[in-house]
Amino acid sequence: MHAGDHFEVPPQDGRTYLITGSNAGLGYFASEKLARAGAHIIMSGRHPNRLAAAHDALEARVPGASVETLILDVANPGSVRSAAASLRGGLFDRRRLDGVIFNAGIVHTPRERTLTRDGRELVFSTNALGHFVLGAELLVSLARSATPRHTPRMVWLGSMSTRMGAYRPTDVQLEEKYSAWKAYVQSKVAVQALGFEADARLRDAEVPVESVVAHPGYAIGGRTETITGVNEPSRWKRFRDSLQAPIATSKETGAEAIVRALVDPEISGGEYWGPRMFGGGTERQRPSATSLDPELRTEIWERCEQLSGETWPFAKAARGRR
Ligand SMILES: NC(=O)c1ccc[n+]([C@@H]2O[C@H](COP(=O)([O-])OP(=O)(O)OC[C@H]3O[C@@H](n4cnc5c(N)ncnc54)[C@H](OP(=O)(O)O)[C@@H]3O)[C@@H](O)[C@H]2O)c1
Hints:
This protein has a single domain (16-319), classed as NAD(P)-binding Rossmann-like Domain (Rossmann fold), CATH 3.40.50.720. The protein contains 10 helices and 8 strands. The protein has helices at residues 25-36, 48-61, 77-93, 122-144, 180-204, 235-242, 251-263, 289-292, 294-308, 314-319; strands spanning 16-19, 40-45, 66-71, 99-102, 153-157, 210-214, 272-275, 282-284. An 8-stranded mixed beta sheet has the order 3-2-1-4-5-6-7-8, with helices on both faces. The chain is globular. Bound molecules: NADP nicotinamide-adenine-dinucleotide phosphate. NADP nicotinamide-adenine-dinucleotide phosphate (NAP) binds next to helix 1, helix 4 and helix 7. NADP nicotinamide-adenine-dinucleotide phosphate binds at residues 20-21, 23-27, 45-47, 50, 73-75, 103-107, 126-127, 157, 159, 215-216, 218-219, 251, 254. Pathway: Steroid biosynthesis; zymosterol biosynthesis; zymosterol from lanosterol: step 5/6. It holds the Pfam family adh_short. Residues 15-184 form the Ketoreductase domain.
């Protein structure tokens, strides 16, 4: 059951996973697949009503699912820290944390440069920086959940766009020149670079946590089934998206590589996974050279430390292993 074949999610009973941005899209379907396999799912999102609707949909579609919700706005460092604190509090006497999918993201980026409340460029803050902060906040909990049979994982959401004119994110705040496409691509190059750098640093520090990068191919709502409160494309969107059928899949199919990156015991930290171009299924792939560049990886990592004021507690996480 490896490179390139169809992957069945193995039983996940007893495992707990957190997924950011799980009220819609890939995050919702990743949650559903993991819940179906028996995992306990912490669905998170920034909006209580949207999150509640997705929670209800999941419970209706997966009878007996074990799922809870957590308000977490990745573009707001205060929200990330308080969500992580409440998660740690709950984990202390209740559950383990076997993995996290850093999924939340802005795909349809604003035309004009937009800032978060704390003055950071919105797309980079949502897609990359917020997850950098969340990773720092959850690292010790993840490491403490390691067992001889399971190494907890974090999965970062990369993108094929990183191969198309890969912007080298030297100006992560896009202060010099902004474009919607550039904001997206450079944030995804940064996400991939962070994912690979995290794995290298985890290994160096001997922390029992792995970091894997995965991408969904091109997955769109109009090719995805209608689920009330989760995916309700208009007829016009369905029509438009149907024109892209040769190159696009559903969000449900797109979620396959992401879930596999989280749970396939044969995958190792530092790998890059995505859908096969032909014939379905998922496979290990080669990421863009830019996101692998050690100099860039260090640069992005340090920039995130500087912008967020967070450093990952590698030494504490290594000491905390059981
Ligand atoms: N679809 C693709 O073809 C594709 C390709 C490559 C990579 N990706 C990546 O996959 C991830 C999910 O994409 P998708 O296609 O599923 O997009 P989507 O359908 O637009 O869903 C995005 C999810 O992220 C959430 N989100 C956005 N900003 C947030 C914030 N500040 N805090 C918390 N949650 C937030 C959204 O919540 P709201 O409902 O509150 O907005 C939603 O749940 C993204 O990281 C994207 O870059 C997607």
